[in-house]
Amino acid sequence: MMSKKQTVFNLLFLVIVFGLTMYLVFRGKDIGDIISTARDADGRYLLLSLVCVVFFILGESVIIFYMMKTLGASVKMTHCALYSFVGFFFSCITPSASGGQPMQIFYMKKDKLPIPVTTLVLMIVTITYKAVLVVIGVLICFLGGDFLRGYLGDYMWVFYLGVGLNVFCVTFMMILVFAPGLAKWIMVKGLKIIEHVRILKPKKARLERLEASMDQYHATAAFWASHKRIILNVFIITFVQRCILFTVTYWVYRALGLHEYGILTVTILQAVISVSVDMLPLPGGMGISETLYMVMFVPVFGPLLLPSMLLSRGISYYGQMLISALMTCVAHLTIGRKNEEIQRM
């Protein structure tokens, strides 16, 4: 579990980045007019967009429950939902979403779930989650490059960087899974180089932990080879899950009374932003997400661009964070409580 210092640092970093982003985006603008326009939006579509956010989060809980049952682990669907809320909350407040899975493992451990099983499940969730972005990004590159250039212009390099980073990440994870020996050699060699140039002090315990952590990928490879249909199902669920979140911007578009653009165009443009910022070391891609939004959606929203961004980002990221924070409190109060009470008896 993250220490209190880490949590405070992450929250402070989040607040600073948020403050700078809001200042740069709304500097010199009439904030009152923007908020007034946002308030006049159709509440039915805004509610639908919020429902999409909840469905997006619960999509992961369906995958966790499905895989846990496949592996013979006894787990409640309600607890799987709480694991997902915990994961998304800590992913929202940590750079590169690095804090989500460690916290999920912590709460799964409180539920007495075997660590090897939880690690395997979350590893496959991570790989498929990234793989979906790679598939979407590559398809857009090959099938919609000219279309996208009309919206991104000089910012096309950001999209290509995002696709490249995601491809590198998924490729490296595949090497870890299917060539664990090679991956172990690379990681150990890399660690020794870092220690040799004195970025880190040499520690035998660190090397032992690294070598031990690599062994878990053998189990992932074995599961992948013997459960191809399950992996395909997880990929399909993840694809649907991500697309549901991408539609939030379209429902905001409709909430503002706009009709010219179809759901496919707006959803693809939002997917491009997600692909571009997913691997960047900022909480929720904050800052760069708003910049790309302001560039890409000018022809879509016109004079309603800023109110639309306020609503779209407010619901898809900040709304997601607040809902997940509330449910994380529920998880903290409920998960593992029975086990703790039994231990006291």
What tags apply to this protein structure?
345 residues, mainly alpha, disordered C terminus
Topology pattern, helix = H, strand = E:
HHHHHHHHHHHHHHHHHH
- Any low-confidence stretches, pLDDT <50, length ≥5? 341-345
Give the biggest beta sheet.
none
Helix content: over 70%
Report the principal-axis shape.
globular
**Structural class, please?**
mainly alpha
Average residue pLDDT: 78
Through-space gap between termini: 26 Å
Q: Estimate what percentage of residues fall within beta strands.
A: under 5%
Rg measurement, Å: 21 Å
Please count the beta strands (DSSP E, at least 2 residues each): 0
Number of helices: 18
Write the layout of secondary structure elements.
Elements: H1 4-26, H2 31-39, H3 43-70, H4 77-93, H5 100-110, H6 115-143, H7 145-152, H8 156-178, H9 180-196, H10 204-214, H11 216-226, H12 228-246, H13 248-255, H14 263-277, H15 288-296, H16 298-301, H17 305-334, H18 337-344
Helix pairs in contact: 2-17, 3-4, 3-6, 3-12, 3-13, 3-17, 4-5, 4-17, 5-6, 6-8, 6-11, 6-12, 6-14, 8-9, 8-14, 9-10, 13-14, 13-17, 14-15
